[in-house]
Design brief:
Blueprint (H helix, E strand, L loop, with lengths): L9 E4 L2 H12 L3 E4 L3 E7 L2 E7 L15 E5 L3 H10 L3 E2 L4 E3 L2 E7 L5 E7 L1 H10 L1
Helix pairs in contact: 1-2
């Protein structure tokens, strides 16, 4: 059987420029391409995703739950989280202090779920060795 590969990740959004602002200023990604209808972000190591604008009246296509869930690793959690919240993100539960680091689940202004992790390098190494 031929091997399948993931070709793209596309998030449907109401307002592409506002969503670009969230991912650029909040998460810290620079768009490779951005206009009023479409944007693409490269998150490094071959990972990326796109934002596609949806016309008014197509609300059903924007229905979101907890999927997809985009996870981002940062090294400045305490500075980045307030910036994300000021750009329209909302915490979805409490910040967790796991053995591997600080973790927050955030709902974006468009309702998508984003995870933010600041690894605790020393504890993460001990945790992975024990498991």
């Amino acid at each position: 059987m031929a091997q399948s590969r993931l070709r793209s990740i596309v998030l449907l959004v109401r307002n592409v420029p506002k969503s670009v602002q969230f991912y650029e200023q909040g998460i810290g990604l620079t768009p490779a391409v951005a206009n009023d209808a479409f944007a693409h972000f490269s998150a490094g190591q071959g990972v990326g995703f796109s934002l596609q604008g949806v016309d008014d009246g197509q609300e059903a296509t924007l229905s979101t739950g907890y999927s997809p869930f985009l996870n981002f690793e940062v090294n400045d959690f305490d500075e980045r989280l307030p910036r994300i919240l000021s750009l329209g993100g909302h915490l979805d539960g409490a910040i967790k202090y796991e053995p591997t680091g600080k973790v927050a689940s955030i709902r974006t202004p468009d309702g998508h779920m984003v995870g933010l992790l600041e690894p605790n390098t020393a504890k993460a190494e001990v945790y992975h060795k024990a498991n």
